[in-house]
Amino acid sequence: MIRSFIGPFILTFGISMIVLLLQFVWKWIDELVGKGLDWKVIIELLVYVSMRLVPLALILGVLLSSIMTFGNLGEHNELTSTKASGISLFRTMKPLLVFVLFLTVGAFTFSNYVVPVTNLKFYTLLLDIRQQRPEFIIKEGQFYNGLDGYSLKIGSRSKDGQTLYNVMIYDHTQKQGNVSVTVADSGYMNITEDKAYLILSLHNGFSYSEQLEKNKKIGKNKPLRRDRFSMQQFLFHLPETELNRSREDMYRDHYNMLSMAQLADTAAALEDERTWRKKQIADGLLSRELLRFEKKTEARSNPDFYADTIAGYRADSLLNELQINDQSLAITQALAYARVVHSNLKTSAENSRLRKQWINRHLIEWHRKLTLSFACMVFFLIGAPLGAIIRKGGLGTPVVVSIVFFISYHIITLAGEKYARGGILPVWEGMWGSTLLLFPLGVFLTYKSNRDSAILVRESYYFFSRRIISFFKTSLKSRNEDSAAKQ
């Protein structure tokens, strides 16, 4: 059984990795194109991405390979032979169940120790790539803004890529807008040997510039200067093409780069800090904002001062003791103080909410390492009985069924993670919701397949519904007869 399972598992795991890698490339293609990256950097980035996708690819690989394995056995009547020999489906599944159990433990170990290191290297390299300036590529009919202080546009270019036609250059070095522009019929560009500068020679053109005053502002009359030339050269400094690598220590404390023990410690420390800040705000309200006194030093030194004062405090009686003008002034000041406190409380509540979301992100990552690992076992319990029921091998029906279950699992997981991140659901409910829904389904499918129940036969559901309808009709008829007898 294990030998028949290994081949499809390796195949499906490889297919899953390729599909997930293509998804990554499709998502980040704009960040990679036009950067002038070396092929070694791209391969390094794809290796890091592959390591990050291993836990997710394992889930899809286990589901697809289990359906294929038991589908092949059912298609060639091997499951029928084993059942005729007195060997149940669950006993046939036992060797693979043990294998998937070891695979689950391995996936957890990989997620807890390898993936954080890979995430650290991946995000560091990705941020370096995103900060990399694009290489010098001018497209026809589009403005190129990769040259400091200049905007360049060409109408067309020759096949050699060096001769340009209908050239337009805006000079923004004065930072006054489009006050200087040069147009030419043609031009020739050449890059120096050290690839640090671009020499652009323009032919048969005009230079237009609006004259600035001494304070570098355009005058009211806006005098315009026009120069005609037969040949004019521009020297541009090209952006660096070498990738500047950042230190990995800068992002080491991010929740994606931590193990489960580190995530738990960090989340606990953040929660303690959040509780301490809430207590500081509450103490500040009691000591500074609830009641205002002239002798604040005395009040702060005595913890029971406010409790005793508030117990005997009567706002109406105190207000009535004041003159009319003083009452109006007291009410105005109280409203001003209340508005300030209300604004501070809103800001504090928003900060507390953001801190809670940051704590939830650490807890989400903590639970993710467990849910992705345990999902291997869940999908095996779903895939193996489904393969025995469907009795179709190959990559046809198993792929369709696997995609349906995997997409359902992924959608429920994303929804639960979103609700957990926003604090709508507890983190453990949001992250384990998909597992709690699919695990009973896997146990149910295994149980029904082990008992040879026809759960995918349409006639079985027809007869089952007929029995339910008949049961309700009989119950209703007996109730009517009993009521008629009593009358």
Brief descriptors of the model:
487 residues, alpha+beta
Descriptive notes:
By secondary structure, the chain is of the alpha+beta class. The chain has four domains: 2-132 and 376-453, no CATH class; 150-237, no CATH class; 255-362, no CATH class; 457-487. The protein is 64% helix and 12% strand. It contains twelve helices and five strands. Strands 1-2-3-4-5 form a five-stranded antiparallel sheet, with no helix packed on it. It is flat. The chain starts with a helix and ends with a helix.
List the helices and strands and how they pair.
Layout: H1 2-32, H2 39-75, H3 78-84, H4 89-131, E1 150-157, E2 163-171, E3 180-191, E4 197-210, E5 224-237, H5 260-289, H6 296-301, H7 305-311, H8 315-320, H9 324-390, H10 397-421, H11 427-450, H12 458-486
Antiparallel strand pairs: 1-2, 2-3, 3-4, 4-5
Helix pairs in contact: 1-2, 1-4, 2-4, 2-9, 2-10, 4-9, 5-9, 9-10, 9-11, 10-11
